[in-house]
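User: You have something folded?
Assistant:
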Amino acid sequence: MCSTKSTDTRHKKQDMSLRSIHLIFIVSSIVLAILVAIWSIGMYASGQGSVGHAAFSGGSILSGSGLAVYLVAFLRKTRAIGMK
């Protein structure tokens, strides 16, 4: 008979915590917002861009800043409740 449970301890599965996954998504979103802001500023400065590119860069900077504030608040909250 074949058992559905594995008794082999050599291949222990390491699960990522919800906190770790959340941190990865927040940080990657901040990086993406920074890259988009750099791109849109570059487009606006090149002469090929329009006022829309400048506004888009402003929105990206605001989004990245908001995410950075959220990241700090999230880290403080998860430390306070003992989440690992």
